[in-house]
């Protein structure tokens, strides 16, 4: 009974991880950039959802109408205006520092605007739930999961079925070759970044439904997400999604014998094990070897 | 060696000289304390960071105290002035803050910060500069095990004794009604754990079996795992060693899983004014220990509630009362000793407090040699959309509700 | 500029810096300023230790705060649990952390850049979790109280530790200088410039990276341990903070990673600024913003450091000399190689 409940919770959690990790691994695929600020934007989106609900009274889900385009634009801008300024030779290292700096800035501004007080969206259906085979599923968690699934499916269709997706995949696989084929890789990279950041907007909204948020919360997320993309193979979106489901489930199940705190270490154990034994990751990702 | 080294070294030297200059200039801005100068009270509080919520409450308490004292002509005929620094809920900062207050700003008195984590390091600074240190928040028993001689906790009881009245009441129930099992979930924080484990010890000794015992880090946001365990164990009693938001999150997660305990007690959270709304107003029966009640019959309390409402436009809560109480304790010592400055005087203040009782808004307080107060907390319960004192019986405002209605 | 006069200039500058550091305690008007001085020196040692990895190999670690915290906790635990004398505990702790750095470095350095940074951040996060959760051993969130090594008044305590940190700084700087001059240092720098070519030319890059990482970890642990003995109260949240690591990077980058005294200058600058703004304007989340914006500006416009950038500007005004992005020209490199043999 507890086991089944934990499996359900792990599944719901894994869905959210999968969405967020996809964005993170997408940046890496496109530009070999580890985007530390990804989770800071996630929290920013959650704050915007909370703020709109608190001030204007709209449902947090509706905030996506604003945040998704806004974040897409921010992502394009970030790539075109900042990341391209870095020297190619030190891009990986310096981009980490740059995105780290952006994360600090976002955190500081959030703290300044909303104080360090923990916030939570209070909805009429916050504590509503329904029963399924003796376990209970909270409505808000299910909404968050469905959001993640829709966003991930959208990303999948975009990558596999559209011309832009084809160009994006070509850029990820071999940038120079893609350019020879006439793909405007700069523009594609910029849009790729925008899409990555847009996933953070969706994820942040999903997050705001069911948890408390505070400015420094993003550190809590970036660790597991980085572990997920390494385990899944840097740059591989399906790998990240698969690793996210496996690790999310593992965390949820390990909570039963180990308690919440120790269960979180599963991400880091998986990270170190992957780097020590299989640096290219377990679910694909040929790119990782050299980075 | 490349020529750049030279430039770097000279710059380092120049920067250093500059730092030295700034330090020198800003070092001498406080002189002696003549009899007409204000009494400066130095405080470091977490106004940002993890403990900013209660930190601000304590700040209001201090401010209310200073205003009440000053409106009456001050202490020893001198006005009271507060110098409050923000420690960002950070232990490194809190030590630097008190170092600055005592060493650089030459304040006359210092009083404590919020949260046990910060009280121990800051009490050590005060101790080593031989300053009296009355504090509003270091309730965990570790605080009193450090061998501090100048420390006094300005509240009725330490964390582990908060639930004493509740434990007595539960164990006195007839055998067929008495709960058999209990679940504990406590934040990894000395105060929060102290309250929960104080009750756990007593219930276990009385034969109530512990079925779940979870500890979570202060910044946990996802409580579904803990809630799943508690719900699966179907414990009769639920005890949350909580601050505010984590208590709310845990309750909501438990509501989502449809778990209904017969008795639920949380430290701190239920007394928060926003608590009822945050958990969907299903509060009836939830218990919380408190060291303070707005309706308490103590003499100074009426004045406090009245003046506080006038100043801040709301009723004081426990955090505010703790700050105010701290001020009252210091004021009593200063009035009795007839002095308030660094040096010899501090010893007089300490000695006086060790051998006397002080009347405060939370009742008369006295301390043992470690600065531990000698009392217990009252138990409050949500009844009819309001939180009321139910234990101990002689001060109760409402009857104890048991078992707790569904939430 | 002729070599001899350059040497004299550099020597004078070092003597001046040393003198400034040494007389500071007697000039400090109150114990608070002195304690800030201890903090700044602590930062200087940490930033210099960081620069063993960051400066020589170009691998940027955001996790050195965790290594310092580990050194602090190891020292504290050895004193409290094993009953070792304070400074013996400090030495053992540094060795332990250096030993731990071996497997850590092997996981982190086997692959290039990105994974290294990920591991360094993960290190901070995992140690925070472990030290918080393993309360029976580390004291958890109740913290660990490290006994004072000397029975002194508080101002005297600050003064003694100020000089101890100054000594440690001197040792760290000396070690950096020795490596900088050695063949080993040359190999490390070749990794920074182009790791593939260095490897192709037969430099044992992995071993070199690992050795210098271990040395860096050892020095960082010493600084962390000394801090623990000075400060006395350890709390996982503050010992394993991601912010410490980022301050170190900012300090080193600001001062210039390729200079012996760059990180020291950066530490004095940033450390003093942090304290100054705190005293004058109080603490607000804007500190984070300032740190973030400053770091971003440095990374975007002056990745080789602010001080060197200013230096280059002056040089360009001064004379139309070489404008290579490399630190040394090929000719100088050859000369150095000759000297090293």
UniProtKB/TrEMBL annotation, chain A:
Biological-process GO terms, alphabetical: amino acid transport
Membrane topology: Multi-pass membrane protein
Coiled-coil spans in chain: none
Membrane spanning stretches: 6-26, 33-52, 64-83, 95-115, 135-159, 188-209, 221-247, 259-277
Protein family (similarity comment): Belongs to the binding-protein-dependent transport system permease family. LivHM subfamily.
Key words, A-Z: Amino-acid transport, Cell membrane, Membrane, Transmembrane, Transmembrane helix, Transport
Species this chain originates from: Paractinoplanes atraurantiacus
Name this polypeptide is given: Branched-chain amino acid transport system permease protein
A Pfam family the protein falls into: BPD_transp_2
GO MF term list: transmembrane transporter activity
Domain of life: Bacteria
Subcellular location, record wording: Cell membrane
GO cellular component: plasma membrane
InterPro entries in alphabetical order: ABC_transp_permease, BCAA_transport_permease
CDD domains: TM_PBP1_LivH_like (cd06582)
UniProtKB/TrEMBL annotation, chain B:
Signal sequence range: 1-19
The protein, known as: Branched-chain amino acid transport system substrate-binding protein
PANTHER family found in the cross-reference section: ABC TRANSPORTER SUBSTRATE-BINDING PROTEIN (PTHR30483:SF37), LEUCINE-SPECIFIC-BINDING PROTEIN (PTHR30483)
Taxonomy, superkingdom: Bacteria
Stated family: Belongs to the leucine-binding protein family.
InterPro entries the record matches: BCAA_transport, Leu-bd, Leu_Ile_Val-bd, Peripla_BP_I
BP-aspect Gene Ontology terms: amino acid transport
Keywords recorded for this protein, A-Z: Amino-acid transport, Signal, Transport
Species: Paractinoplanes atraurantiacus
Pfam family, one: Peripla_BP_6
Ranges for domain Leucine-binding protein: 38-383
TrEMBL record, chain C:
Membrane topology classification: Multi-pass membrane protein
Places the protein is found: Cell membrane
One Gene Ontology cellular component: plasma membrane
Keyword GTP-binding recorded: no
Pfam family, one: BPD_transp_2
Keywords: Cell membrane, Membrane, Transmembrane, Transmembrane helix
Listed name of the protein: Branched-chain amino acid transport system permease protein
Lineage, uppermost ranks: Bacteria, Bacillati, Actinomycetota, Actinomycetes, Micromonosporales
């Amino acid at each position: 009974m507890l086991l089944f409940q934990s499996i359900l919770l792990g599944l719901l959690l894994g869905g959210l991880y999968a969405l967020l990790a996809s964005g993170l691994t997408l940046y890496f695929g496109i530009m070999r950039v580890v985007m530390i600020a990804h989770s800071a934007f996630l929290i920013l989106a959650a704050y915007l959802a909370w703020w709109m609900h608190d001030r204007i009274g709209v449902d947090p889900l509706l905030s996506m109408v604003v945040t998704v385009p806004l974040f897409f634009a921010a992502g394009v801008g970030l790539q075109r205006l900042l990341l391209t300024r870095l020297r190619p030779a030190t891009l990986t290292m310096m981009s980490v520092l740059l995105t780290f700096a952006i994360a600090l800035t976002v955190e500081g501004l959030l703290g300044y605007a909303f104080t360090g007080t923990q916030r939570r969206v209070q909805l009429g259906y916050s504590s509503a739930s329904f029963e399924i085979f003796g376990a209970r599923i909270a409505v808000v968690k299910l909404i968050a999961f469905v959001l993640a699934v829709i966003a991930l499916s959208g990303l999948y269709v975009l990558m596999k079925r559209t011309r832009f997706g084809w160009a994006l995949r070509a850029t990820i696989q071999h940038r120079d070759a893609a350019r020879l084929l006439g793909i405007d890789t700069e523009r594609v990279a910029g849009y790729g970044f925008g899409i990555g950041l847009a996933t953070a907007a969706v994820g942040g909204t999903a997050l705001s439904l069911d948890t408390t948020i505070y400015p420094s919360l993003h550190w809590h997320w970036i660790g597991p997400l980085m572990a997920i993309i390494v385990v899944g193979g840097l740059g591989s979106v399906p790998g990240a999604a698969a690793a996210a489901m496996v690790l999310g489930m593992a965390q949820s199940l390990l909570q039963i014998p180990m308690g919440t705190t120790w269960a979180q270490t599963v991400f880091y154990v998986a990270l170190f094990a992957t780097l020590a034994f299989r640096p290219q990751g377990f679910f694909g990702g040929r790119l990782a070897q050299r980075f | 060696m490349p020529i750049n080294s030279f430039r770097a070294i000279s710059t380092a030297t120049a920067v250093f000289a500059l730092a030295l200059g700034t330090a020198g200039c800003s070092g001498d801005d406080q002189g002696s304390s003549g009899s007409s100068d204000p009494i400066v009270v130095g405080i470091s509080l977490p106004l940002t960071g993890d403990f900013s919520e209660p930190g601000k409450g304590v700040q209001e308490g201090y401010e209310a105290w200073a205003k009440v004292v000053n409106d009456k002509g001050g202490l020893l005929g001198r006005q009271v002035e507060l110098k409050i620094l923000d420690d960002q809920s950070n232990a490194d900062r809190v030590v630097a803050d008190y170092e600055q207050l005592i060493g650089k700003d030459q304040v006359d008195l210092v009083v404590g910060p919020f949260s046990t984590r910060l009280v121990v390091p800051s009490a050590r600074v005060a101790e080593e500069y031989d300053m009296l240190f009355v504090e509003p928040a270091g309730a965990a028993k570790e605080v009193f095990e450090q061998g501090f001689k100048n420390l006094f906790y300005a509240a009725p009881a330490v964390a582990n004794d908060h639930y004493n009245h509740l434990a007595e009441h539960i164990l006195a129930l007839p055998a067929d009604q008495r709960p058999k099992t209990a679940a504990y979930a406590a934040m990894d924080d000395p105060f929060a754990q102290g309250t929960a484990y104080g009750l756990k010890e007593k219930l276990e000794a009385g034969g109530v079996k512990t079925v779940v015992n979870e500890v979570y880090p202060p910044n946990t946001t996802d409580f579904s795992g803990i809630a799943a365990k508690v719900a699966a164990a179907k414990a009769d009693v639920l005890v949350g060693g909580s601050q505010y938001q984590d208590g709310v999150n845990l309750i909501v997660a438990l509501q989502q899983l449809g778990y209904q305990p017969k008795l639920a007690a949380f430290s701190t959270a239920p007394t928060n004014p926003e608590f009822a709304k945050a958990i969907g107003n299903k509060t009836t029966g939830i218990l919380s220990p408190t060291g303070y009640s707005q309706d308490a019959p103590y003499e100074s309390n009426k004045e406090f509630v009245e003046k506080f409402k006038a100043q801040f436009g709301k009723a004081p809560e426990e955090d505010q009362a703790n700050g105010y109480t701290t001020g009252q304790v210091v004021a009593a010592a200063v009035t009795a000793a007839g002095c308030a400055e660094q040096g010899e005087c501090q010893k007089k203040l300490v000695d006086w407090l060790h051998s006397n009782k002080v009347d405060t808004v939370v009742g008369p307080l006295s301390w043992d040699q470690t600065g531990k107060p000698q009392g217990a907390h009252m138990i409050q319960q949500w009844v009819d959309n309001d939180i009321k004192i139910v234990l101990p019986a002689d001060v109760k405002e409402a009857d104890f509700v048991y078992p707790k209605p569904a939430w | 500029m002729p070599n001899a006069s350059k040497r004299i200039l550099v020597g004078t500058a070092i003597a001046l810096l040393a003198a400034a550091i040494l007389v500071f305690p007697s000039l400090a008007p109150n114990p608070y300023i002195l304690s800030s001085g201890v903090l700044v020196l602590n930062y200087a040692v940490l930033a210099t230790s960081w620069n063993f990895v960051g400066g020589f190999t170009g691998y940027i670690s955001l996790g050195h705060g965790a290594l310092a915290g580990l050194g602090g906790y190891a020292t504290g635990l050895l004193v409290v649990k094993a009953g070792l004398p304070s400074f013996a505990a400090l030495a053992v702790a540094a060795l332990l952390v250096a030993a731990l750095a071996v497997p850590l470095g092997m996981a982190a350095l086997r692959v290039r850049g990105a994974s290294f940074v990920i591991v360094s951040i993960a290190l901070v996060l995992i140690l925070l979790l472990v030290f918080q959760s393993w309360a029976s051993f580390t004291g958890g969130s109740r913290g660990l109280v490290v006994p004072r090594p000397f029975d002194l008044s508080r101002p005297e305590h600050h003064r003694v530790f100020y000089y101890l940190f100054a000594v440690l700084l001197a040792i760290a700087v000396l070690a950096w200088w020795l490596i900088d001059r050695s063949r080993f240092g040359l190999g490390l720098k070749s990794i920074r410039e182009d790791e593939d070519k260095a490897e192709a030319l037969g430099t044992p890059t992995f071993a070199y990276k690992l050795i210098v990482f271990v040395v860096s970890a050892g020095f960082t642990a010493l600084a962390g341990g000394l801090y623990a003995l000075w400060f006395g109260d350890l709390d996982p949240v503050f010992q394993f903070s991601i912010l410490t690591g980022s301050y170190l990077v900012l300090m080193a980058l600001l001062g210039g990673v390729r200079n012996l005294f760059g990180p020291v200058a950066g530490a004095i600058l940033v450390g003093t600024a942090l304290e100054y703004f705190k005293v004058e304007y109080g603490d607000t989340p804007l500190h984070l913003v300032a740190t973030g914006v400053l770091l971003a500006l440095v990374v975007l416009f002056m990745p080789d450091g602010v001080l060197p950038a200013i230096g280059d500007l002056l040089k360009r005004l001064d004379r139309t000399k070489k404008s290579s992005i490399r630190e040394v020209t090929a000719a100088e490199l050859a000369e150095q190689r000759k000297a090293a043999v």
